[in-house]
Amino acid sequence: MKNVWRSGIIFTAISFLTSIVFYLFQMIVSRQFRNAPGEFGLMNNTITFIGFLALPLPMATQAVTHYIARFHFGGDDARLHGLLAGCRKFLFHITIVGSVIALILVRPLGDFFHVSRTSLTFIALACVLGGLWASYVTALCQGLGWFKRLALIGLLGATARVLFGWPTTHFQPVAEWGVLASAAMLLPNLILLFWRKEFPRRTDVATSPWTSEFVRFLIVSAAYVIGSNLFNLGDNLVAQRYFSNADRDAYSVAEKLAVALPTAVGPLLIVLFTHRSSHHHADARLEQLKLAGLYAAGLVSGAVCLFLLRKFCVHLLNPNTPEAATMVGRLSLTMIFAGLLQLLGIWSLASRWLKISLLYGGLGLVYWALLLYFGKSPANLLYVMPITAGTACGILFLVWLMTMRRHRSIPQS
Fold this sequence. Notes:
The chain is mostly helical. It contains 14 helices and no strands. Helix 2 packs parallel to helix 7 (175-183). 52% of the residues are buried.
């Protein structure tokens, strides 16, 4: 982690290529579903639904990643080796718990968000269970700073999605095959076994992660993960609950384009989180602020480009939904606020500013509740989203800024 800029830019560049492959999949599938109204939106909303069902393990792995980075880059090998041994057991148990929670909630949540077909519900559950077991790879790579390997796994996963989804949706243009293509993305995680000799050595003494500090951080990580998902993807579930098939297809196209903004520059936040988790001194903070500035600049410039090219992008993704172009502007503005909120949230989490991270999660819940209450049509949803997201961003920024000023004069190791 000697050069956070270099790590961030390389990781972002490879991940940008991955994003292109992701959108190639969306372009292919949207054309396969040309004669099946509603299937494209149903596929994307089911994928979002899967993400919400699988939240328990990302909450845990966020905390594990923080402490892996903290011990690894702090040179505390004994605690790192013990933590990894203990966390293998912890992640195994949390996976079991997450699987049980998913089994209990999949049907009632599926009914609430109108994921009505039983086949889609069972596929969603299978994807959740597979994704839970793959999360340890992400935590290990991110915590140890293996960003190139993590990016490679992501690129291979996106490619596997295209290779699986293209032929299957051609012969059976239904949402089920599009969702199953996302499960194919999990297979490249096995490539990490090629580097198993570089894993931190096993230890016979496992350090239990269940310290009071870890439990507090786990709770706050849960708040961060919930807030991040609600700000970035919560509107998709609102659309799935209230919109007609035609409106859902159009909204799904515009939403996919807008959410690409924080997704494209998101790898910078992954590097920032790992670096900030392990380095809090003044010189490191300056580099981290530069990385945060690069993220914000990329977010805003991407939104401007998307707005100017919105008709072209919509036609490229799905020519059957020209009305989606009118939705891109407000969605892009909302995603700028959502991306900045995520930046402030992840900085606070890595800094162990627990109250701000909890505030971020709370603001996410309020944001989503307002969308559910007011967003019963595309016009209403698009009106409410930028106002509520912008207000939340202003509140969190003021609290974050005051905390930054308070900590600036405090020496940190």
